[in-house]
Amino acid sequence: MANIYPFRAWRYSPSAVRLEDVVTQPYDKISPATQQAYYLRSPFNLVRIILGLPEPGDAERGQSVYTRAARDLRAWREQGVLAQEKNPCIFAYAQQFKVPGTEIVKVRRGFIALGKLHDYSEQVVFRHEQTLSKPKSDRLNLLKATHAHFGQIFMLYSDPAGSVDKILYDGAGPAEAEITDEYGVLHRLWKVSDPAAIRAVTAAMADKKLIIADGHHRYETALNYSKEHAAPALAKTETSVSGLPQPAYPEAAVMMTFVNMDSDGLVILPTHRVVHSLKNFDPAAFARAAEEFFTIEPLHGAASSGFINTLSSQQGTAFVAVTRAGALLLRAKPEPVAAALASLPERQRQLDLSCLHSIVLDRLLGLDAEKVREQTNIRYLRYAAEAVEQVRGGEADVAFLTNPVSMEQLREVAFACDVMPQKSTDFFPKLLSGLTIYALD
To answer: Domain 271-403, what fold?
Structure first.
């Protein structure tokens, strides 16, 4: 099923830079303020490649963020800022973190390797979310300019016995690289170059099916790019380096981090919806319209943490709507909601976010699938406090606070070849970009 390959990664040279000065969060989690901070941190910070700043006169000079990304990557390789591994490797990658909003400490273990790109129709790689068009266009432009992958696709596989982690972590010595990021997450990396260990991991993964946890846009971009660069039919067989398998051609694989979905280290946070720029939005009229599908209870107090605590204690489909008039707890009325969602697959009908998107955003607020896909009137935020503040500060009309999707729901939806609405899951912590780089040339 899953084809895993070691690779000769490009990595930041410790003699040239400090790793903590150059790695970043994934591109779609970098705010403008974080982008500026990364720029100031180092002239070799990866943000200059994966999320560069436009410069005045770019169009006149025939330049762009993508041409500069290619220029910088080429220069850093030539200058020795980035150095390539001599032999194909995989990398054990562990993250120790405190679950947001709690004092619970967890460790999430996985490994970085190349993974073969598959069409979803092959049922080896499964998605769980819809994708958005703008991010895919941006990532394709970067890939075409640089011919390299800088972050890993976050992949889940099932291994109840933890056999892969045992191969990688039992008896592992001190980490080769160690860094604490801006969220207090401790990241550790071990290089695994022993052919026997690599073969054991690839063999253990051979019967696995994979679910994309994070990186749907980059996966689909890489898949389309792979099809454009497919080798002639006679050459489409895996090659070998030092007895270890390699992809048929460089574009046939992409860099992935593989994590056991049966482990205790997986944490999924909710992604809240903030709706803005609606014409003549009236909180009272919205509440009246919502009564057809929901029982509505005003929530007192001003703290977003209180809203989340109330929401997390609910049974069945529920979410909190925050407007400038106050906060409301919306609990689904079973029969009207079931009738409204009758056209959806059964597993999707069980999801709070399907109810929110199909009934509230579409029917009540007039935000159809196209507007949601193009993010015309909607923003997605991790923190409830930020979502609430945007409403109270006049930057938005209404915020919808949600409960997180469970791992069981994600698994069932993905393996049924269904999809959830966009931005349904927020796995914490994120995988750092820049720990390893996969150059296609």
So the answer is: 3.30.1760
